[in-house]
Amino acid sequence: MWSLLEPVFRAGETFPHDPAITEAQARLLWIEQTRAVMVAADATGAVVGTYYLKPNSLALGAHVANAGYVVAEHIRRQGIGSRLCQHSLQAARRLGFRLMQFNLVVGTNTAGIRCWQRNGFQVVGTLPGAFRHKQLGYVDALVMVQSLVEGPTP
User: Fold this and answer.
1) Strand ranges of the sheet holding 122-133, from the earlier edge strand across to the other edge
2) Of 59, 97, 113, 119, which is least packed with CB atoms within 10 Å of its CB?
3) Residue 152 has what pLDDT?
4) pLDDT tens for each residue of 111-123
5) Number of domains in the chain
6) CA 53 to CA 36: how far, in whole Å?
7) pLDDT of residue 154 exceeding 90
8) 107 in a structural domain
């Protein structure tokens, strides 16, 4: 799993974690502090994508899910991210979450934004300069949400 996560974290373009994160720290973040982890493998068994699913907040906000996704660079734009997103939404519903929220979708991650919008997420806010992109400096980030229940969410 580390071979999939490491290049994404090191790039400093889509995740807010320290680009110098260690494998042990990444494992804690991606696996041990989550409610569910899924991996996607190709025909040879190589891991080509993954997501985690966890509560976005504590106690009274724990019914809102949060997720993070990584797809191997060599297989991007083939629908893996979209399938992982759809799977995570189903898993979140099964786990009893009522809403999924992405807290910090980097504004320059246009492929990710398009993917999340195609899968039913809406932008509910823009955080000006909230992400310190490794190459571009401070860029905007979006907050995106999707209801996981039918009808109004009180």
Assistant:
1) 36-41, 47-55, 64-71, 99-106, 137-147, 122-133
2) 59
3) 62
4) 999 999 999 999 9
5) 1
6) 5
7) no
8) yes
In whole angstroms, what is the distance from residue 151 CA to residue 29 CA?
A: 33
Burial class, 151, CB count within 10 angstroms (exposed 0-12 / middle 13-18 / buried 19+): exposed
Q: Is the dihedral of CA 151, 58, 130, 5 positive or negative?
A: negative
Task: Identify whether 153 is part of a domain.
Answer: no
29: Cα separation from own chain's centroid: 12
Give the C-alpha separation, 9 to 15, whole Å: 6
How far is 92 from 78, CA to CA, in rounded Å? Answer: 23
CATH number reported for the structural domain that contains residue 20 in this entry? 3.40.630.30
Instruction: Say how many CA atoms lie within 13 Å of 127 toward its Cβ.
Output: 13
CA gap 124, 88 in Å, rounded: 20
- Condensed to tens digits (0 to 9), the pLDDT of residues 30-54 reads 999 999 999 999 999 999 999 999 9
